[in-house]
Amino acid sequence: MWDESLTDIKFDGAKVNRIGSGHTCIIGDLKMDFKTIENRHYKAEQAYGERTENLPMTKAYKFYILLDAVDSNTTNVRVINIIKLTWLGWLMKKSVFKKIKKNWAGKLKNLEELGQKSQTNSIKP
Question: How does DSSP assign 69-98, residue by residue?
Fold first, then answer.
């Protein structure tokens, strides 16, 4: 799995990744309910977005993953984070942003490694 922070994820397999569908990510004791959202703001060949109101120290958190093909073997991945902080979140703004940035850096590194393994495995005779 490219997101190693997840303990579990609960979803309806018939509806996963459809706009408006929901799922619950479990990280240790923390449960966060996410909803898949439409991308109306960012240009990309493929886009995926989610929102939650369960992220600690935030009122609302949205992210978009934007994908653009560079060539037949390479995809450019961009992540856009939109965060509305609570008053406590504002007090700890630097720490909150640093944690989110670090978490996404790790997820994207894992995703890149997964893609490289997949590409290597598909080349082997």
Answer: EEETTEEEEEEEEEEEE-HHHHHTHHHHHH
Structural domain boundaries, residue 36: 8-123
Coil, strand, or helix at residue 20? coil
Structure tokens at 90: 């504002």
In a domain, 2, yes or no: no
Specify the CATH number for the domain of residue 31.
Answer: 3.30.530
Range with lowest mean pLDDT among 2-6, 58-62, 74-78, 110-114: 2-6
Burial 18-32 (b: 16+ CB within 10 A, else e): eeeebbebeeeeeeb
Q: Can you give the pTM of this predicted structure?
A: 0.82
Give the tokens for residue 82: 């939109």
Q: How far is CA 11 from CA 2, 37, 103, 109, in A?
A: 17, 15, 22, 25
